[in-house]
Amino acid sequence: MALRSFADGTLFAQVTGTSPSRVLALHGWARRGSDIAPVIQGVDAITPDLPGFGASPVPDEVLGAKGYAKAVAPLLDECDEPPVLLGHSFGGRVAVCLATAYPDRVGPLVLSGVPLVRRAPSGRSNLTYRTVKALNRVGIVSDSRLEAEKKRRGSADYRAVSGVMRDILVKVVNESYEDQLRQLRSPVHLIWGELDGEVPLVVAETARDIMKEAGVEVTLTVLPGVGHLTPVEAPDQLRQAVVEALNR
Amino acid sequence: MSKPAVIFGGPSDEHDISILTGLQVIHALGEVHSVFWSKSGDWFLVDPDLEAADFVEGPPGRSRELSFMAVPGQGLVLKKKPLDISAVVIACHGGPGEDGTLQGLLDLAGLRYTGPGQAASALGMDKLAFGSAMAAAGLPTVPRILVATGEEEAPEFEGPYISKPRFGGSSIGIEIADDWDTVLALKKSSSFFDQGAVVEPFLVGSRDLQVAVRTYPDWEMSAVEAPLRAAEGIYSYDQKYLAWGGEVSEGRELPATMTDRVAAEVVSLSQRITDVAGLRGIARIDFLEMDGELVVNEVNTIPGSMATYLWIDPPLKREQLFRDMVAEAEGPPVRVFSVAGSDGTALRSAGTIASKLD
Questions:
Q1: In the CATH hierarchy, which fold is given to the domain comprising B207-315?
Q2: ipTM score of the complex?
Q3: Mean pLDDT of chain B
Q4: Nearest-CA distance from A5 to chain B in Å?
Q5: Which of A40, A140, A167, B117 is the least crowded, having the fewest Cβ atoms under 10 Å away?
């Protein structure tokens, strides 16, 4: 679990096994590299703490998944051959952007519980919230009252962060990756928890259909009885998928 | 009626965990003043029957605001009337509740309290000072050095290194680094190291051994626990996801299997550490064991849940542990200020201040 610093100390990653690395593993939102590292134990891999998580400092600017891909790109230098990308949840968005930005330097993708396509929003936001927001705009309601209302209504992830990281969260939550999915040249293995409540299976099915239509080689494996936290709930299946991708 | 006051919460990283410990003590003791110390540092008298979730948004409704007067006979004051407190149970983890700040405040107010005094509390939260005190007392330690500002030279010992915030009691900010450059990069980038960082060799293949001690009615030691950790690191994914509380059955070996020699060494070292570190109340001592050799890692002077789950041998009920801790606190205070030697002689013979300035 020991860290090494990269990119002038702006990125920390653990290197497991021997160099050069053959797998690049990207963790989910509010996690860190050591959370996903057990999945790829025994594999020559590099597992960063994504900027703003774990030991890696918060980025200076509001990055989307593309920005994150750029931030972790220096790790590709640690790999002689295009590595397998393992991405869980938010890390999978970064993986897809990395693969489209550096198509020649990235191998097969193993993606699990990744919000790849944006689902239709569940209707308009709450009336109270809209009222508070409107009143804030005209100066009747204070910023702190609006902030309290935002926190009260926001997701657990939203409530847990502040500053740049919150802006990043808002940015990435509103991103969708249809275009990138169509551009992928590497084969993709979607491996999904049947009971994923955060990023339901329908997201994987939609992403698979988009990729298929665009001629991307894609397979979908559904893990029965498993939820969103596949690195904890199904580490062996994830590892197996990575090993299969390595052997392609 | 005089009764114990339990102070919990506080402006610290471990605010939430402190609430959990505080409520455990309050619910077990029953008749207490329940004193919530908010994240912003304000004091409230709250209903002792409240549950953890009632504190998610800060002080629960119907909390009554208290003021703190650091004057003997005052202390925690409700509408100009001091609470009648027999002793304070400090249930604060990390930050000013554990590092001596609160202890100093209670000393000034003439209130007795559980756990170590101000100086010993501060020592327990300063990894550099604590490690140095242990080493100076001849107890087995690993070399622990300050990552000094401007000092880029690698230490004499080799990596991997484990770097830790100098002050603080939780695992927040602790990182294992492969090489010295990474330590320096962490020092530069991590906000947890702003108040200083210490570094020591990371003992690959070592295991943690943790034990609780108490100092009343007699010195006593709990069973020894070996928390299980990921192959190479400090925490595994699973452990992080487990509900906090120190009472989950997974992720630890309790009692830990160990050789008779190591078991005997844990006892003798724990006794010495209690003296050198000035422990009082219930504390937890953490050792590292490597190839049958023990080294002292750190102490936790106010452990989560007061480490009640460790007392399986001898079996001691939580309520008994808390009651004994209160009885100890109600006894002689840790710190009594003395004015002996200031009997006015120096003042009477001083003459004018102007003559001193000449």
A1: D-amino Acid Aminotransferase; Chain A, domain 1 (3.30.470)
A2: 0.77
A3: 91
A4: 5
A5: A140
